[in-house]
Amino acid sequence: MIEILSCSEMAEADRRAPAEGVAGEMLMEAAGRAVAEAALARWPQARRVLVLAGPGNNGGDGYVAARRLAESGRTVAVAALAPVEALRGDAAVMAARWSGPTLPIGEAGPVDFDLVVDALFGAGLARPLAGVAAHAIGRAADSGLPVLAVDVPSGLNGDTGAAAGAVLPATLTVTFVRLKPGHLLYPGRALCGEVVLADIGMPGSVVAGVGARTFLNRPALWRTAFPEPNPQGHKYDRGHVLVWSGPEFATGAARLAALGAARGGAGAVTLAGPAAALRVHAAHVSAIMLRPAARPDDLHAILAGRRFAIAIVGPGAGDGVEAATDAALAGAAACVLDADVFTAFADRPNALRDRIAERPARPVVVTPHEGEFGRLFGQGGPAGSKLDRAREAARRLGATVVLKGPDTVVASPDGRAAIADNAPPWLATAGAGDTLAGFCAGLLAQGMPAFEAATAAVWLHGEAAREVGPGLIADDLPGALPAVLRRFQSTVAEGGDSQP
Ligand SMILES: NC(=O)C1=CN([C@@H]2O[C@H](COP(=O)(O)OP(=O)(O)OC[C@H]3O[C@@H](n4cnc5c(N)ncnc54)[C@H](O)[C@@H]3O)[C@@H](O)[C@H]2O)[C@@H](O)CC1
Ligand SMILES: Nc1ncnc2c1ncn2[C@@H]1O[C@H](COP(=O)(O)OP(=O)(O)O)[C@@H](O)[C@H]1O
Ligand SMILES: [K+]
After folding, report:
1. How many domains does the chain contain in total?
2. 438 a known binding residue?
3. In-domain check, residue 307
4. Which of 449, 458, 479, 498 is the most core-located residue (most Cβ within 10 A)?
């Protein structure tokens, strides 16, 4: 279940379901039942439940949950935002099946309850919450009671993970069919609390028919493209990664990228840069080769001598970064551009785009964090959610974009995008991004396509950080990769996934 559906894609699936023999009423019954079951499982001691019911289908789910909870012996009251007569379609049907107490929302406070079920607004939120609805969620939030959100916390935009107005933070969110971007993108991810994805009987064929282009970043997304070493191969079959190293006193970043590339599976890795910098590298590395390049332009000759090389430029690149980028784009089979590249091309994304466009068949992966993304694009840069911005950036640059953070988005120029949810907070440490650039290059070197290499690298990076645990420094990440790869390979052998 790796597709992520936008609110409109989910509505499209709803519209298509009846043609496949699944009526809306069946879906709503199943959704409300899933909410009630989750409430009973998570809060078995809660005797009195207040259900906040909105004017649309989210409210309809709430009426079903109210009935199911009452049937299981709970004392339930519905606080309705709209009079029952105003409801339409399936929601009206479900409200009619509810025979327990219903109060106008302004008259029902969360006093004397143990749990609030938030079924005010879901995927149909059309504007910021105001008036009586905003007042009601304010009271629910202030009550300190646990909140179970139906589909998404009311007030949260399910597509963007942002809230334009008031929002009711949830302890637990029960959503249906597939995750939405807002469950994964911050601040939405935090506002959802724990997320339970319930199967409500939506046929897989209906979901497939919607043609989603956004995915959860899990091995299922890229496993079939993951490189398998040829038993009879030699090291150069697994590619050669060339890392441009800046000056003597800033070698760490390039070295982390080089180690990342080697652990990521490249057959050979070379650090190229000024001799003084290479002397520093020499004191630290053994498996990594060193190649003097007094000036970035020397990279042209080094790359010309290689049939297949992946270049990393940016980590600790220093002054010559633009020339090094030019040489890499001109001579490497694929490039990973990071860090200083975004400073060199600050406010000139079109200059970078034009250079990338000169060799359209050679994949380029760019790996900015939010600050670098803003620096590169400047005023007039891509707008909208993190997902929208990464997608638009990939389209504009003609490159695979890895927009890093706790909810890293990878976007391909072909429109596909993936959101990661496995990075622990201690991954936010100096040098972690350099290692990620290396992991990505190591996979590109083995022939993995750019979107798959970038998504796999991001996932492995998050897993490596979990493997190390709190206290992690970036130096730990390359060495943590073998354990992660071993686990990944054994789940592949079993045909499974290390995470669902
Ligand atoms: N396939 C699915 O995923 C299913 C979805 N279902 C539910 O259907 C929900 C979507 O239903 P709807 O499309 O009816 O949308 P909602 O129930 O989220 O809200 C739509 C209603 O709220 C009004 N509204 C929107 N923003 C408002 C605001 N700020 N202030 C006041 N009124 C506002 C709209 O005019 C409309 O009447 C999902 O979130 C989910 O809970 C379930 O019934 C089961 C099936
Ligand atoms: N709050 C967070 N939780 C999890 N991962 C994070 C968080 N913030 C940043 N990261 C990850 O940490 C890494 C930091 O990279 P970056 O900012 O480029 O650092 P550096 O340039 O020092 O290498 C990225 O992979 C990013 O996705
Ligand atoms: K809700």
Report:
1. 2
2. no
3. yes
4. 458
Q: Say whether both 168 and 236 belong to one domain.
A: no
* Residue 28 CB less than 6 A away from ligand 1: yes
The CATH number assigned to the domain holding 17 equals 3.40.50.10260
pLDDT tens for 466-485 read 999 999 999 999 999 999 99
Residue 32 CA: which ligand is closest? Answer: 1
Q: Are 218 and 459 in contact (CB under 8 A)?
A: yes
- Would 498 be classed as within a structural domain? no
Q: Examine the pLDDT at 234 and tell me if it is beyond 90.
A: no
How many residues would you count in the chain?
500
SS3 state of residue 223? helix
Q: Compute the average pLDDT of residues 146-170.
A: 97
- Which residue bears the tokens 């979990």? 466
Helix (H, G, I), strand (E, B) or coil at 453: helix
Whole-model pTM: value is: 0.97
Cβ(129) to ligand 1 under 6 A?
yes
Q: 309 — phi, psi (to 5°)?
A: -135, 145
Question: Is 149 part of any domain?
Answer: yes
Per-residue pLDDT of 381-429, as tens digits, reads 999 999 999 999 999 999 999 999 999 999 999 999 999 999 999 999 9
- Indicate whether 500 belongs to any domain: no
Which residue range is the domain that position 411 belongs to?
A: 219-493
**Which of 160, 187, 212 is at the close of a domain?**
212
